[in-house]
Amino acid sequence: MIAPVVCINSRRAMAKATRYLRPLIVERIAIVNKGVPESEQPNDFLQWLIQEAPNQPKVEQTVDALAMRLVITSFAALHTTAISMTNLVYDMAYLSSQAGPGEKTMMDVLREEVLTVLPYPHTFDKRTMQTLYKMDAFMKETLRLHLTGSIAFLRQARRPGGWTTSDGRLHFPQGALLALPNSGIAYDGDIYNEPEKHDFTRFYRGHLQEEGQDEKSESTTGTGRQLDRYIVTTSNEYLVFGHGRHAW
Of 77, 82, 72, nearest to 18 (Cα)? Predict the structure, then answer.
């Protein structure tokens, strides 16, 4: 009963966001109603929501519902990014403080790579940024250690009659919720050597380029497990961004 009072500031913020988004959402809905080919429609999350809305209950097709979904997604994207960047700075500072006399600090290692890959006048482009192998590996290791949640891949079985895994071993009745133990996987010693240690080299792939190997080939950890390189590449052992059919 007190929820509306406790959440009054959130309700006000949502109302303000809806007033701001309403003209844009109405305009985007009109594009769909006019029969504009999907290939010619804007390609962004809002348009995806609008395209999917007809397949959802009526309550999910309103401007208010679409605005709510857009705001929630934006909030999730912003706060998880902010948390990750904060942890990156903390890890870099801590690891740098642990360097012995005369040793390169973690900050020195990353700075040298940036200056090598992006020499003055610092031309930034997608392909060049992808060659910051040490930076990418460092960020991936930080995200593995500092998860935004202890579970991942939270889903609901919505298919009538439920959903059964491809091997037939598990069946989830319609409406059942399922998730994977993200923290349990990230700190599993059978998957990662010294899982509680920040060791960016477990994901480092730059040596493959230095040895002239295919950058898409796989590297291994000390346990012989194969791992993908980039921070955005998920796997059964790396679920920071979730994992599903769109990951393949």
Answer: 72
Containing 230, the helix (H) or strand (E) segment is none
The predicted-structure confidence for 148-201, as pLDDT tens digits, reads as follows 888 888 888 988 999 998 899 999 999 999 888 989 999 999 999 999 999 988
Three-state DSSP at 164 gives strand
Helix ranges (DSSP H) in the chain: 3-6, 8-33, 45-52, 63-97, 106-117, 126-129, 133-145, 182-186, 206-210
End-to-end CA distance of the chain: 45
Give the C-alpha separation, 105 to 91, whole Å: 12
- Please state, in angstroms and rounded to a whole number, the distance separating the CA atoms of residues 234 and 246: 10
Whole-model pTM: value is 0.73
How do the domains of the chain map onto residue ranges?
Answer: 1-98, 105-248
